[in-house]
Specification:
Layout lengths: L1 E2 L7 E2 L6 E7 L4 H9 L13 E3 L16 E4 L4 E8 L5 E6 L4 E6 L2 E8 L1 E4 L4 E7 L6 E5 L2 E2 L15 E6 L47 E6 L2 E6 L2 E2 H5 L2
Parallel strand pairs: 3-6, 5-14
Antiparallel strand pairs: 1-2, 3-4, 6-11, 7-10, 7-12, 7-13, 8-9, 8-11, 12-14, 15-16, 16-17
Protein name: Laccase, multicopper oxidase, benzenediol:oxygen oxidorectuctase
Organism: Thanatephorus cucumeris (strain AG1-IB / isolate 7/3/14)
Function: Lignin degradation and detoxification of lignin-derived products.
């Protein structure tokens, strides 16, 4: 495939892949977490801490089963486009691939001048496309994505450093890498070094608003739970209309 690029020669990618790199898993049902979050004892409004981080739907937690890691299969000598998406609601991830550099070509749907990095931090809702060359000896390599989340120590199930997948070359054994898991080294992404190739402008244009609405945001206690209001109306009631 060809990645659209109006100012530079197109980037030819022989085998596109999509990688959802980041998600979070909670063992406690959402209604229970919501009740805990809005309880008046949660004075700091600390968000629930996940039990594990996931890559493509798989992850491990402290004391849990050693479930198989997610695997991305590649063939030596080819180039791949990986689309990394942080689908979690909270927390960021530091993404890297052992012994492989990455060329960022897109951020949040906007094509960018190619930028080579060894790792990058990706926040909730962010998306990056990178080109990875499978130019290393045939083997298994760690895909690393340790998580940064507030109050991580509050959940004993969470090991925020244990978020891994496997980049597996064709012909490599069906096994985890034998190298140390470790953390990313080399050149991290500095976001100010990203330069977009197009400027799509603001959605809907940049003209003045047709209607202006003033909203007063408030916080109160209703029926023993913390409640947020817009102009005196509880947000939950607004959403249920």
């Amino acid at each position: 495939m060809f990645f659209p690029d109006l100012k530079h020669p197109p980037v030819q990618l022989q085998t596109p892949k999509t990688l959802t790199a980041a998600a979070t898993m909670y063992h406690t049902p959402a209604p229970t977490l919501q009740a805990q979050f809005f309880d008046t004892s949660n004075t700091a409004l600390a968000a629930p801490v996940p039990d594990s981080g996931l890559i493509n739907g798989r992850g491990r937690y402290v004391g849990g089963p050693q479930v198989p890691r997610s695997v991305i299969n590649v063939q030596r000598g080819r180039r791949y486009r990986l689309r990394i998406i942080n689908t979690s609601a909270i927390g960021s991830y530091t993404f890297s691939i052992e012994n492989h550099r990455m060329t960022i070509i897109e951020a949040d749907g906007i094509p960018h001048e190619p930028l080579v990095v060894d790792s990058f931090q990706i926040y909730a809702g962010q998306r990056y496309s990178v080109v990875v060359e499978a130019n290393q000896p045939v083997a298994n390599y760690w895909i690393r994505s340790p998580m940064t989340v507030a109050n991580a120590a509050n959940n004993p199930n969470l090991d925020a450093t244990d978020v891994f997948a496997v980049l597996r070359y064709q012909g490599a054994p069906n096994a985890e890498p034998t190298t140390e898991q470790g953390t990313a080294i080399g050149t991290p992404l500095v976001e100010e070094n990203l330069h977009a190739l197009i400027n799509p402008g603001a959605p809907g244009g940049s003209n003045p608003a047709d209607v202006q609405v003033n909203l007063t945001i408030g916080r109160t206690t209703i029926d023993g739970s913390v409640a947020f209001t817009f102009n005196g109306v509880q947000v939950r009631k607004i959403l249920s209309r």
